[in-house]
Amino acid sequence: MGVSIKRAALIVAGLGVLSFIFGVIAENKKPTAGTLIPGKDVVVCKYPSDPSVPLGYLSVSFLILSSFAGYLSLFYPYKGKSVPQSVLFRSTTFFVFFNIALFTGGLAAVLLLWPTITEHLHLTRNVHHNLATQCPTAKTGLLGGGAFVSLDSALFWLVALMLADNARQDHFDEVENGSKAQALVAAE
Predict the structure, then answer these.
(1) What's the pLDDT at 142?
(2) Where on the phi/psi map is residue 80: left (φ > 0), alpha (ψ -120 to 50), or beta?
(3) Which domain holds residue 149?
(4) Taking 90 as the threshold, does the pLDDT of residue 106 lie above it?
(5) Comparing C-alpha atoms, which of 131, 18, 127 is closest to residue 69?
(6) What's the total number of domains in the chain?
(7) 33 phi and psi, to 5 degrees?
């Protein structure tokens, strides 16, 4: 049982939606600030238990899987028939959407990783020698924005997949019509 274009599209969309959901939940669960606990020549920041860091990493993981599945789905030989990449990139529209999908995937990864890593660092490095520390957290809004861009990336991969399918069908029609024309010329 081979992979169909419909199944590939469902995989890309499903992984993109999971990345979006985990990113939005991570944004909503992120604490606004920590509690300052003064000590002798140090300040300890105590943060409430929050799942934003693991949810952020899950969102990034599903984004990577969605982008990887989107990329592979474009060049996969459906029904045992492969198409040269040059045929796909001959279409300007496909080329544009392919590059937009790559760009939005990278942008989403940056927007998701930046606050996740920052929050992780705040939680692990919570002892400060600067007594004026205010127990900061990662910048608000980046995880949610990254989640939306992650969903956009999955949608752009789906559009590129539809355009690749059209280019694939056109290519096979040209090959089939070309072989029929050659058969007619040879018969004359």
Answers:
(1) 92
(2) left
(3) 5-187
(4) yes
(5) 18
(6) 1
(7) -165, 170
